[in-house]
Amino acid sequence: MKMSRIIPPLILATLAIGCQRETLPEQTPGPKVEGETIIFPTNAAQLGYLTVEPAQERQSAAVGLSGRLAWDDDVTVRIYSPVAGRVIAVPCEVNQGVAAGDTLAWLDSPDFGQALANARTAAGNFAAADKALTREQDLLGHGAAAQKDVEAAEAAFVAARAERDRAAATLANYGGSAASTNEIYGLRSPLAGVLVEKNITPGQEIRSDLMLANAPQFVSPQLVVTDPTRLWLFLDVSELDVTGLTPGREILVHTPAYPDRIFHGRLEIIGRELDPATRTIKARCWVDNRENLLRAEMYVTVDVAASGAAGVNVPTKAIFLKGEQPCVFIETAPGQFTRRKVKVGSESDSRTAVTDGIAPGERVAGEGCLLLESILEGDNQ
Fold first, then answer.
1. Counting CB atoms within 10 angstroms of each CB, which of 222, 264, 311, 321 has the fewest?
2. Residue 171: beta bridge partners?
3. Is the pTM of this model over 0.85?
4. CB atoms inside a 10 Å sphere around CB 110
């Protein structure tokens, strides 16, 4: 009687255990590793931790570079007085247009007066030597002079001509000529443009050797004439940014003074050494300033336009280091990821430039790339 009461509960328990075993889900197989590739089975749980997006073609080779505007030296002249003297008049004002040869200042200069006197004296000595030579040659033809007297006259003539040419060249270097009548010297502009800087006033004493002194007040030019429609832009470029730059690239210039405007230019020269203090490379650009809105010594930011070979942009979180080598995971097929070595450039707005190793449109693993790396390294150990 007791046995019949015990057996049914045992049968029920056995049946319940059998039902539980039948309802247990089958265990999902893990990811498969083949070399540098990880292959996940369909609906693998790990796929939920991964985000994938296509690599975007770069619109800029570098963004947010810092730069400083300056006058274009190819169309700029910094004028120093080549003679000492006292300023008697400055017939020009800043922002005034000038033509080549226009007088920008008048100086009462004993140096110029001496050069003028030397030129006139040398011209007179040459004329006398010429006449003496002619006379000696005529006397020699009539037998009234010796050959040595003619040779001496010829030597004096050559010396006088050399002195005349030297004195005339010195006077011309100062900008004067034998037609000058006094020691009033005109400081002229050798180029056409706009007077943008004037550090000279009437009554000021000027010495031609002060510019050689190691002092800013002496080194500054008396006058600066330039074409303000052309500017130079000097950039400080990092080691990562410079890898994507080549001369001739278009640049886009931004300045806080005109936040809604973009100014255009061109990258011309890239330096070949790092500045030891800032660890950056100097680059020079040309900027179009035909609207005369930009000013020299403005600080600006610059974006350098990309070319067809500029690479792609990917999320910064997609890049990891294997040793010292940057790598990413590329989705080569649904649920299949391959580790690939890349070369990286600059970073901006949580995105990093990849200059080699990824083609535009390839799908890159962002979130979860470290999970993929741990799976790959764990299987290879």
1. 321
2. none
3. no
4. 13
